[in-house]
Automatic annotation (TrEMBL):
Keywords: Oxidoreductase. The lineage of its organism: Bacteria, Bacillati, Bacillota, Bacilli, Lactobacillales. Its EC number is 1.17.4.1. The gene is nrdE. It comes from Lentilactobacillus terminaliae. This is Class 1b ribonucleoside-diphosphate reductase subunit alpha. It comes from the Bacteria.
């Protein structure tokens, strides 16, 4: 038998039996039977065996499966010691889906894809050895974190570590264009190059002049942002890693850009084929002023980016619209047009109902709490990366006359349930930070110099979390309850504290900080004010008990950390971000990100195979009441959870809202006496609520339609961790 010739296997049938109740009960034992059958019928017969560990590594190196350099950084006796330790942990997958996803997507296979060359333990070892970079203690620590699934590297990192033929370890990129043809051309080239490397690409087009705007020295007018969007979509379709995956990108535009209506219209199902965007994602940049104009039911003015840049001496995206709005309106030198703010709000909601887009970036919220000198102007393909940028300019030879600063994202995630069981929470987080630091230190995206410059200067990483709903259910806490909010805040406070401490230690060891540290709120100490004036420790007995074996930082601890950071600095400009998670959460046998589950028994449609069923982690008669579907939940509870975490997260979080086309009675008070159908008003209210609660970004709006379909459920394979 080989992977190309699997016959008479029983595991798919066994897995499908989970969906057939027996005496009114979910037969969860069938999932365990499917898992055992999968290992016996699929994995064991097709796993290449070796006489010794040395023979295995020699084979992998000689046949160009593994890089030799990272192996040679260790004495082989240590590698054997590492494997002995991993073997003693007796790792076993807990569900059929976990094992199936790992072996289908992550395990190294022979070049003919006919046999496996890795188990989960082998992949853990490769990650630990590779990211520890020769440091034996770090390799042991990292192996311990990953084998016990307290830490999960992002998909590009976990998949590619140690491989000879691989993509980059970076998850995604953020670039921007300024208002001239040279930079637009360079932006398209950068999108091609970054999509080829792998990962999603976010592009800000806010600085481009609008359709119909005059072009200096040329009789004619600009074409606006939509044709550039079409060029970018075609670029991503073309640059797809030799057909291995669809290139993925998102374009962002300010709601105060004159092309905003055309920008949104390009994603509509009934848009003309000349402008319709089929695969490119859309996001809108929303300043506070927009919410104010909506609240007051006022007109809003859209401003010519060319004129604004000429008047203010900087690109449109870098002008504070909320602060300057009245001045922009009064300035007769700036061309503008007028629309109703609520009409635009409705257009955004209509498109979100139809497609799940656009993402929403509350840009003033992000900048108001940004501790770094500079300005955040956009986000990435999954809306969780929020870092400062500076613009570039390009000359006629396509060389940078001004090299700005753009962004690459290095992601990883904690598994909440497993990290809460760690013997040393702080040491675990430090190990994770050091693994992520390896990626930023060794990333060298020279094909896009602005990305290279940003990474070299900022050393930014993004440590997040997955499995909140499963942890809450296991501990009998209702999602969105006061106790769940208290736990979420305390958990992310701990992540913040220990990642700051780790970054400070690395800065001290290397005598190096991120560029611009001295101008940050970390350097002057003001970042720490809220931790010195407010106590984020658990207050209720229920939540405090969960942290019995985990030291919670006191105000004195925060004061000590403040002094250490002011003295020796931080190595990382940014440290935390919560990605949406995807297949990797199945491998971790946990729920995705901080979201509630969709179904107690999730149904996944796998290409060429059919349906696979995945029971929620820790699902039992005991936890069943705590597993309510996101589609049957008040989305204000989800927003409240994310707001509790956002308080401590320096970047953003991929917050998805889940809606039904027909909304069950009793969820939203404002629906009483009105239609039970989802309307634009529902989304308007929720977006305004999220803004009020301090949410920096909203990712997809996922809608479950009356004909049992999902709208807005695509995911970026790189950023989903």
């Amino acid at each position: 038998m080989s992977l190309h010739n699997l016959q008479d296997v029983s595991y798919f049938d066994l897995n499908n039996q989970i969906n057939i109740p027996v005496d009114g009960q979910i037969p969860l034992n069938k999932d365990k039977e499917a898992l055992d059958a999968f290992i016996k019928e699929n994995v064991e017969p097709n796993l290449v065996k070796f006489d010794s560990l040395k023979d295995r590594f020699d084979y992998l190196i000689d046949n160009n499966y593994y890089e030799e350099a990272f192996i040679n950084k260790y004495d082989f006796a240590f590698i054997e010691k590492l494997y002995d330790y991993l073997g003693q942990q007796h790792f076993k997958f807990k569900s059929f889906m976990a094992a199936y996803k790992f072996y289908a997507q992550y395990a190294l296979k022979t070049n003919d894809n006919d046999s496996y060359l890795e188990t989960f333990t082998d992949r853990v070892a490769a990650n630990a050895l590779f990211f520890a970079d020769g440091d034996e203690q770090l390799a042991m620590d990292l192996a311990d974190e990953i084998i016990h699934q307290r830490y999960q590297p992002a998909t590009p990192s976990f998949l590619n570590a140690g491989r000879e033929n691989r993509g980059e370890f970076v998850s995604c990129f953020l670039i921007q264009s300024t208002d001239d043809m040279n930079t637009i051309g360079r932006t398209i080239n950068s999108a091609l190059q970054l999509s080829r490397i792998g990962g999603g690409v976010g592009i800000n087009l806010t600085n481009l002049r609008e359709a119909g705007a005059p072009i200096k020295h040329i009789e004619g007018a600009a074409s606006g942002v939509v044709p550039v969007m079409k060029l970018l979509e075609d670029s991503f379709s073309y640059s797809n890693q030799l057909g291995q995956r669809q290139g993925a990108g998102v374009v962002y535009l300010s709601v105060f850009h004159p092309d905003i209506i055309d920008f949104l219209a390009a994603k509509k199902e009934n848009a003309d084929e000349k402008i319709r965007l089929k695969t490119l994602s859309l996001g809108v940049i929303v300043p506070d002023k927009f919410y104010e104009l909506i609240k007051n039911n006022e007109d809003m003015y859209l401003f010519s980016p060319y004129d604004v840049e000429r008047e203010y001496g900087k690109p449109f995206a870098y002008v504070d619209i909320t602060a300057e709005y009245d001045n922009l309106v009064a300035n007769e030198s700036i061309a503008k047009k007028k629309i109703k703010a609520r009409d635009l709000e409705t257009e955004i909601s209509k498109l979100q109902q139809e497609s799940g887009y656009p993402y929403v970036i509350n840009i003033d919220t992000a900048n108001r709490v940004n501790p770094i000198d500079g300005q955040i102007t956009m986000s990435n393909l999954c809306s969780e990366i929020l870092q400062v940028q500076t613009p570039s300019t390009v000359d006629n030879q396509q060389r940078y006359s001004t090299l700005g600063k753009d962004i690459s994202c290095n992601l990883g995630s904690t598994n909440i349930n497993n990290l809460m069981q760690a013997t040393d929470f702080g040491h675990s987080v430090e190990t994770m930070v050091r693994a992520l630091t390896f990626i930023t230190d060794h990333s060298n995206i020279d094909v896009v110099p602005s990305i290279q410059k940003g990474n070299n200067e900022s050393h930014s990483i993004g440590l997040g979390a997955m499995g909140l709903h499963s942890f809450l259910a296991k501990n009998h806490m209702e999602y969105g309850s006061p106790e769940s909010l208290e736990f979420t805040s305390a958990y992310f406070m701990l992540l913040n504290y220990w990642s700051l401490k780790a970054s400070n230690e690395i800065a001290k060891e290397r005598n190096q900080t991120f560029v611009g540290f001295e101008k940050s709120k970390y350097a002057d100490g003001t970042y720490f004010d809220k931790y010195l004036s407010e106590d984020f420790a658990p207050k209720t007995d229920t939540v405090a008990e969960l942290f019995t074996n985990i030291p919670v930082p006191t105000k004195e601890d925060w004061q000590t950390l403040k002094e250490a950071v002011m003295k020796d600095g931080l190595y990382h400009q940014n440290r935390m971000a919560v990605a949406p998670n995807g297949s990797i959460s199945y491998i971790n046998d946990t729920t995705a990100s901080l979201h509630p589950i969709i179904n107690r028994i999730e149904e996944r449609q796998e290409s060429k195979i059919g349906k696979i069923y995945y029971p929620a982690p820790y699902l039992s008669n005991d936890t069943m009441p705590y597993y309510k579907s996101a589609y049957d939940m008040d989305m204000r509870k989800v927003i409240d959870i994310y707001a509790a975490a956002q308080e401590h997260v320096d970047q953003g979080m991929s917050l998805t809202l889940f809606m039904r086309s027909t909304i069950p009675a009793g969820i939203y008070d404002w629906k009483d006496g009105r239609t039970d159908k989802m309307t634009t008003r529902d989304l308007n209210i929720l977006r305004n609520y999220a803004h009020k609660k301090g949410i920096k970004s909203i990712y997809y709006i996922r809608t479950f339609t009356d004909d049992q379909q999902e709208v807005g459920s695509n995911e970026c394979e790189s950023c989903v961790i």
